[in-house]
Amino acid sequence: METEIELKFFVSPQFSEVLREKIPHNKILQHSSRELGNIYFDTPDNWLREHDIGMRIRRFDDVYVQTVKTSGRVVAGLHQRPEYNAEHTSDDPDLSLHPEDIWPEGRSIKELGGQLQPLFATNFTRELWLVGMADGSQVEVAFDQGLVVAGDKSSPICEVELELKSGQTDALFTLARQLCEDGGMRLGNLSKAARGYRLAQGFTGSEAKALELVEVTQQDNVESCFIKSLEYALAHWLYHEQAYVESPSMDCLHEICSSLSFVRQTLAVFGGIVPRRASAILRQELKWLEQELGWIKSADYLDDLTEDRGHALRKLDAQKALVKQLHVMRSDLPSENEVLQLLESARYTGIILDLSRWVLTKGWQPFLDDKASNAMSGNLVSFSQNQLDRTWAELVSAFPVEQTLMPEDYIDEHYHLNRSLFSGICFAALFDQESRQAFRLPWADLSQGIDELLTLAPVRELVGQLEGEEQEQLQRWLERQQASILHAMEQTRAMCMEVQPYWKS
């Protein structure tokens, strides 16, 4: 058995020129090109896929190799999967070539072998470089160009894989950073096999999914919770990046922003242990990216206002003129094409690479003193209770129940409220589900209410463009809308303060 450790990138066909220019900056140990044909197998009910197992037979020249990959980890494009290879003589699967204990329980090897059938194929040209890195590590760089084929359907392959052949995982990231410094590379968490299954099953695109709670237990210590939180954020981020590329949607961009905010809040929550200098450059770059995507909320508000030909403004005499102006404001925001350019930019890809490297190599540890190291190995429940107590105190201070708050008071605290909700994502799974939902839902509703207040802002900007009765009518409409939203929010705020914090139950 081998453990395959590699980074995958989606690129354009022209990227081969970049490789030929940049790879010689390192020591080239070998260089070759070959045609590869791969047939992937599974049962009619996709039993191997359900157990996260991939099986293929690869042919090059007159050589056949049967490969089985079992479940592993994917963190920000870094794939780590146990891999079993065996020489073969044909395109017919032979399960006896591999150890018996790699197959899932529930079906005998004979039964499973009799059910296997070809599902899809990947046929591509692979250009290979074996690169010697300065630290002595060896990295294989593969540029693959060809097709995934399932029946009468096909999808292009154009990707770069960096596989660690010997040495340190860090060498993969060092080389990846060199190759992506001019952009044109997008980290991928979809293998060719995953793309083949999608093609065979008529997959039409991934749906956006809201951030859920990090799967921590009372057996986790503080550091393992820190790692799980960052890994989950990275997985959520890359899932929605891929979903956006497949089918651009604002929902996917919102979830990328949620991932960013969650990473930044996780660094803040654990900042009492991990010194700021350990993540200074990362935090600076994450903040830059969050600012680059800061227009997304504005786009969301404009989309809500112009939905169904401006249905929200239907009672206004100036509805058509207002909707026209709102569409102009929306068109001034970045386009899908500009977003895709950002996703392939060097700085964007570098952020994901650096964050992934930092997590995988535990880049904070050299900055920890003995006290901090002990805290990282400490009890997670008590740490989480202390952090949630602090967050709760901040919320009580920001939304004091004894005061009547104005719209600007709520808007000023919107960012901090959302960051507080992100804090709970790290820890809430440790506590009773019913109690945590009863606590978190009113606060989430309050955040939604602030969004509704902010949706009025683009319309308010247009008041000065109207005159006479139309202007007065719009002003009255804004006042009514704001008063209605604020009334509901005040009731929600009272509910928030009445609910017992779930970590104190």
From TrEMBL:
GO MF term list: inorganic triphosphate phosphatase activity; metal ion binding
Entries under Gene3D superfamilies matching the protein: CHAD domain, Hypothetical Protein Pfu-838710-001
Domain of life from the UniProt record: Bacteria
Pfam (any one): CHAD
CYTH domain mapped to chain residues: 2-203
PANTHER family, per the entry: INORGANIC TRIPHOSPHATASE
Protein name: Inorganic triphosphatase
Organism in which the protein naturally occurs: Vibrio inusitatus NBRC 102082
Lineage: Bacteria, Pseudomonadati, Pseudomonadota, Gammaproteobacteria, Vibrionales
